[in-house]
Amino acid sequence: MTVAGRSGGRRWRFSVRPTPRAARALKSLQLPAFWLLGLIMLAGVLRLLEILRADLARFPVATTSAVLLFALYAVPFWLFIASMDFLEREPPLLMATAFAWGGAVATTAAIPGTQAAHDLIAKLISPAFAATWGSAIAGPTIEELLKALGVVMIVLVARKQINSVLDGMVYGALIGLGYQVVEDIVFAVNAVALRGQGDGVGPVVATFFLRGFLAGLWSHTLFTALAGAGIAWFVVRTDKPMWWRLGGLCLGLGLAWLTHFVWNSPLFADGLGSGAAGVLLGMLGKGLPALAMVLALLWVARHREAHYYVAQLARLHDPKIATPGELQIMGHGHLRADARRYGKARCGRAGERAVRGLQTAQARFAVELSRVDHIAPGDALLVHCRDEVLAQRQRLADLGHPEAVVSPMRPAVPRVVVLGALFAVVLFLLIWQAIRTMNAA
Amino acid sequence: MPDYGRTMVAHRLVRNLLGGAAVLAALLLVVFGLPAINRAVPTDRSLAGRLYEVGAGVSVQPPPGARVDASKTRPGDERAAVLFLVGDVRYAIVVQPFGGQIAEAADKLRTKIKATQGYQVTGDEGAVDTVSGLAGLSGGYTAPGRCGRYAVFLADGRSIEVTVSGAQLELQRELAGIDDSISSIRYGGVR
């Protein structure tokens, strides 16, 4: 183990700023921003509990079901966001902090702020203008600001954990998810109050379909991921001139505002054309471009980061650590999953677990390699990581499956494409059915 | 630690403190600053013309001396709301889609009134009509230091909820004008 180098390939060498080995979570305790964050979070949580306690007192069944339903709803989103950064996973405590900022701080601060902004639009322009455009202007302006402040706070307390644009997207998306979940709970309970027929789960389920299903894919999670990308770009790309970094920051924040504005705007509020098809088209027309933009940005950010870390292992030129075939699939989530499936097909569950073990050990080794400027022969942590990779390799070899690669019989159309298309069709049909049901009602 | 190192750490901590304070300041601006600015900007807008279009097809003749609280007024095609201020008396009209009977609409409005802490509906409900022929129900309610009247009408799949509240003396003084205004509510008036 003599090859050194923090740089991960010429093209990608500035895409990632690895967390220095000296960075420790406890060091955050010395930072004033950490204590400010604690105070702000405490105030936000207390205010949120106050709101929920009042809701619970009035509508116990509806509030409890809303909390349970939207908590379950958050799980697949959380898992997807957490898996976005397989190679260099974010600390769970920091991820939870981001979620809590969105759920407790941004929501409770947005209630008076958005209302005041809306009222000001009504007073300074006209009630009619506020009724039409108020939500589109006040909502994004106040809410995106509050959520972006959460990403800034994460940067202030754990600057070293923001290694790439992808990390910013992860924290931004989690803040957005926290906001989305709590906002949906509040909206669901409000729907019960508005119906005026006492405590019941009907409006909660309707809100779940409306806000969770129909509007869930292009909501706060997505908007704040864009803001997070912009902030992370500014923080990470210190190799660029300041105007370029500021440009990226403004672009991220601007896109977050714009996508939120378009979604809230009254344009195509009743859809394009008549009937369920018109409503569906209008919704897709407003939401899909934003979703496509975020997915494209995510694709670029993931691959840039993956290339950086793969290059760390590639420079070792050691097939016991990673074979060329393994390096090829390491940066692609669907190929890693295919390799695990191939391991399972050849050696059963043990094969799948062994492939997963090797992939995890390789990822950890790559991250640790990126954190040192020079590899010292006696570096205990690197030796430990290398030994872990070798142990996992031996485990695979003992199963008669020495290399964690994809099957040579792999179908021409990747499984991820098929599953993605299937998921999109099922979602499309569910949304279509939901709109038809609502129209009929 | 050499002096240079100490200075660097101190600078880093100061920058961190300033960054955190800036975030806190932005939060405080949104939570307290914006509402304060909102309160400082006058809420009323002068009324023009004899009939005021509330929205959702409903119009009304405002009581004498009434001003509109622009911040609580939301015109719209499906739902609409207006808040008139007559002195310290608040006179609100809310129009929204409703598929039930008039008794259900009245029950819903009573529930809404009672949901506010300290508010109690008093006495029995009675029938009420508008000049344009809308039939509805009306009643009264009390709150600490205030009392009020409510009325509800149905028109073309919509409920028109009216609530009036103010201090006892002030309300008595303005009630005649407000009653006339309630009688002037019409659906499909000025469209």
Task: Provide the fold topology.
The complex is a heterodimer of chains A (441) and B (191).
Chain A: H1 32-58, H2 60-83, H3 92-124, H4 127-157, H5 165-195, H6 202-214, H7 220-236, H8 242-264, H9 275-314, H10 324-330, H11 333-370, H12 380-398, H13 415-440
Helix pairs in contact in A: 1-2, 1-3, 2-5, 2-6, 3-4, 3-5, 4-5, 4-7, 4-8, 5-6, 5-7, 7-8, 9-10, 9-11, 9-13, 11-12
Chain B: H1 3-40, E1 44-45, E2 52-55, E3 58-60, E4 67-69, E5 80-86, E6 89-97, H2 102-114, E7 120-129, E8 135-143, E9 146-155, E10 158-166, H3 168-183, E11 186-187
Antiparallel strand pairs in B: 1-4, 2-3, 3-11, 4-5, 5-6, 6-10, 7-8, 8-9, 9-10
Quick description:
By secondary structure, chain A is mainly α. Chain A has helices at about 30-60, 60-85, 90-125, 125-155, 165-195, 200-215, 220-235, 240-265, 275-315, 325-330, 335-370, 380-400, 415-440.
Query: Span between N and C termini of chain B?
Result: 79 Å
Which word captures the global form of chain B? Answer: elongated
Please give the number of β-strands of chain B: 11
Q: How much of the sequence of chain B is in beta strands? A: 35-45%
Number of domains of chain A: 2
Number of helices of chain A: 13
The level 1 CATH classification of the largest domain in chain B is Alpha Beta
Q: Which structural traits does this protein have?
A:
heterodimer, A: 441 residues, mainly alpha, 2 domains, B: alpha+beta, Protein Transport Mog1p, Chain A, 3 helices, 11 strands, 35% helix, 36% strand, elongated
